Amino acid sequence: MSDRLIIFDTTLRDGEQSPGASMTRDEKVRIAKALERLRVDVIEAGFPIASPGDFEAVQAVAEAVRESTVCGLARAKDADIDRAAEALRPAARARIHTFIATSPIHMREKLRLEPDEVVAHAVRAVRRARRYTDDVEFSPEDAGRSEPDFLCRILEAVIAAGATTVNIPDTVGYALPDQFGALIAELMARVPNADKAVWSVHCHNDLGLAVANSLAAVLAGARQVECTINGLGERAGNAALEEVVMAVRTRQDRFPCDTGIDTRQIVPCSRLVASITGFPVQPNKAVVGANAFAHESGIHQDGVLKKRETYEIMRAEDVGWSANRIVLGKHSGRNAFRTRLRELGIEFDSEEALNEAFARFKELADKKHEIYDEDLQALVSETAVVTGQERLRLVYLRVCSETGETPEATVTVAVDGEERTATARGDGPVDASFRAIESIVASGTELLLYSVNSITTGTDAQGEVTVRLRKNGRVVNGQGADTDIVIASAKSYINALNRILQGEPKTHPQAGDV
Ligand SMILES: CC(=O)SCCNC(=O)CCNC(=O)[C@H](O)C(C)(C)COP(=O)(O)OP(=O)(O)OC[C@H]1O[C@@H](n2cnc3c(N)ncnc32)[C@H](O)[C@@H]1OP(=O)(O)O
Ligand SMILES: CC(C)C(=O)C(=O)O
């Protein structure tokens, strides 16, 4: 049995199925490049038949990624498989992942097919996918609630038809670790041609057991785990990549295999996904939460100072947190700035992008005593968005907020380079600012979500604001960071409006134009 555990990342497909987490094509490419740096083996980039946008995103990821295999999802239908193959054509290594449900309830109530018909669809789909690539994965959806005898039958048939990976999904997060591990062991023992395929698992977190179930499966013999950054995914999410990878690595005394992941890229990748999707990472989240390596109580601090291993089972640096805290300030130069960002896994495409980020860093350093890694990451992800084709830019903001008075905001926005100013009152300083921006841009968008997170601690911490806007059924997220949360809010609002404008004809926004 192989000692390599294949990491199949599905942040861009199942992760995107988290309500509100949809990503643009360019955002998917940025995440895919980060996943490639993380050295994931397979990137599931989307479900090409789902929409023209999903097709283009899979195609763009297939063009951009050279090291990891790029995968597209397809139902057991000819049209889905042909569409996936078309989207994956530019890939250096392409995988088609086809699936059909095998549980009695799904076959009877959803597919309305007899078990024999399900087997026939599965075999036909795998054969068709093999016409396009040698790398074909098959999943019996809802395997966690399927009959083991039927699973054995369909898995033997798809392996004989050419499936090179068979993936056992616990689609509704129903399994328990001992039972799921036993199921994998049973299937691998009973399917006669089991050794012709890699065995994989895909677990959902409805009972908070996705990682535990995945690890139980690996101990039983599975050699691929499907997972997502920060555990994103449909409903309660999928197994978190960072937890699976670090559990296997930390407990090498129990696992007979290891991954090829560059673990130092885990935290930068987690932060990128959080900032693009607008789903912040909870501070107590394992591995990637802000408190994962923080020690608060005296007895723990005393122990760690004497010997780090008394209270730490992993090294913060090994997953991408920095060990040295105060590194950069307003007297630092470009080389220190570039070097620190390189240590965080961030590279600039051009000198212009570096200069743009450096200018923002200097502005921030003037306002803030200490610049933490999290500040830098927020600043760079903001720069990456800003250097795109932005049509609106915040030029000026003044807010007047006084006890007993209605807050008032005056805002100047450059619209395609032309500055416009407006003043508005609101229920609070943020509301007043948004109203002032609206009276300039007249976007007609609906605000679905507004959230503020403190990126670091202290009263001079940067606030990171996420807003979610909807227009004509299209939902976008915007982010902004600043030590002043009203400015961060205005930046995030304008960032979201820029995303709505992206790809639209370049006329000057007037009332209702955005
Ligand atoms: C467990 C998972 O996460 S699977 C992935 C889930 N992700 C998604 O569904 C996101 C993308 N989906 C979509 O955009 C749409 O559902 C589409 C484009 C795939 C299909 O859209 P529509 O054609 O309008 O069908 P709709 O979504 O209403 O229903 C699904 C149909 O696919 C059938 N179906 C579902 N799974 C499969 C399968 N694996 N193989 C074959 N047929 C299937 C259903 O029985 C149903 O058929 P019916 O229309 O004959 O009743
Ligand atoms: C397509 C399959 C693997 C899936 O996402 C699930 O069953 O949850």
From TrEMBL:
Cite the EC number: 2.3.3.13
Question: Which Pfam families does the record match to this protein?
Answer: HCS_D2, HMGL-like, LeuA_dimer
List the NCBIfam families hit by this protein, alphabetically. Answer: leuA_bact (TIGR00973), PRK00915.1-3 (NF002086), PRK00915.1-4 (NF002087)
User: What family does the Swiss-Prot or TrEMBL record give for this protein?
Assistant: Belongs to the alpha-IPM synthase/homocitrate synthase family. LeuA type 1 subfamily.
Q: What role is this protein assigned?
A: Catalyzes the condensation of the acetyl group of acetyl-CoA with 3-methyl-2-oxobutanoate (2-ketoisovalerate) to form 3-carboxy-3-hydroxy-4-methylpentanoate (2-isopropylmalate).
Q: Which PANTHER family match?
A: 2-ISOPROPYLMALATE SYNTHASE 1, CHLOROPLASTIC-RELATED, HOMOCITRATE SYNTHASE-RELATED
State what protein this is by name. Answer: 2-isopropylmalate synthase
Originating organism? Inmirania thermothiophila
Q: What lineage does UniProt assign to this protein's organism?
A: Bacteria, Pseudomonadati, Pseudomonadota, Gammaproteobacteria, Chromatiales
The gene it comes from is leuA
